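User: structure tokens for this one?
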Amino acid sequence: MRVTASPAVTAHWPTFIVVCLCFSVDKADQALLPAVYFELCRELGAGPAVLSLVTMARGLVQAAVAIFAGPLGNRFSRIKVVGIGCIAWGLATAGVGAARSVPALMLGRAVNGLGLGLVVPVAQALVSDMFPDAQRGRAFGVLNLFGNLGGMLGGLFATSVAAGSVGLLAGWRFAFHAVAALSCIVGLLVLGVGREARVRRRSAPLVLRNVVRDLGAVARLRTFCIIILQGAFGSMPWFALGFMTLLFELLGFTHAETALLTTAFYVGATGGVLLGGVLADVAARRSPSHGRVVVAQVSSGAGIPLFLLILFGLPAANASFAVYIVVLFTTGATISWCAPLNQAIMAEITNETLRSTIYGLDRVLEGLFAPAGTALAGFLAEVAFGFRQSAACGDDAEAASGEAAREAAGESGDANAHALATSLAVLTAVPWSICFLSYSLLHLVYPADRKRALAAAEPQDGQALAGPTEVGMGAIVVSEGAK
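Assistant:
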């Protein structure tokens, strides 16, 4: 059956576009640091363990701030929260590009997480307001498609310019400053173009008691608890995979080749999130209580063999560059389905008044665990598997790149590359196995939570509730009688 957008949904397309642009810039910003690990390693003397702590600091601050996203997004203009947050993280990104030491780098990246912690959950709540249940999978698929596209272009751009210079700026610094300027521009667009959806909104004042009540209502949802469990582990590999750029360069690929390899992965992931959203909606129509969950299990389970192939199978077989491209594209297109699925499920088990809260709490709890993937990847590579920073980041490292170095490494690969690959294997196979098992538990609790939310949304005492199909371009409508 063909599903078409309602006129109200169509009227909100300018807001949806600028929110998608926010996600693009967010992912581009997120891709910058991993793309220039090699240059930071040489210029600032920071090995994988230190660089992973920098990324972890950003993730932890982002998680801590996200707890305020729910109360703010429920009681104030979501457009203003998103626009101002986007500008704030852009200014922090400029600070990262100006850093001259590891502490300054860590401080700038941590402040960067402040804006992101507020923007992402509130933007997700905005999207859930605009679309009915039958279209949310695709809507979140498009949102994440824009995000992955931004990550792909950001990583490609940073990797391409990192080793050179632009005017008086080192290439990697220019990349940060360019994305910082783009973030501020997008933030201004959100403030100028974005409009709120007219939905029921709580009028309860912003006091601690009401905030705790909202958080408690969300935390008691068993489906949400399981999504947090799988996300805490399922997101760890994505943070750890920030080291893939460094791994490819250690395997002997040039900067240009590495940029193409990471681009192939992100191109696949970009199409994959949209595919995942479409598959989620199709599966939900066939089995409303189990369809989305099955699609998520297929995606999370496929990541384990695919990454073991990339990390060990292809280097051992001395695979060609073209083979790497194909496998990376296929992997990205397969393992990226879960984000739109999770976002659609969270919207289904809550009403409009709690969506900023559930997305914010999701960011908090996942963010406390997921960044550990980066820290553990660097720690395991150096401490457990013998990664030697001096060999990878010394002055002679540049001379060791290219096809000649790849041939010199032999079939077993460079020792540092093998150490890093082993670390990444641990940080992908174990978390994704837990993620797959966690999704299995959703089959037991999600049907009941979904039915409860649908029953609560039914009009009572003859009072009609404003829903996603009744959104408009005007001001927020606040229900005076909301309890």
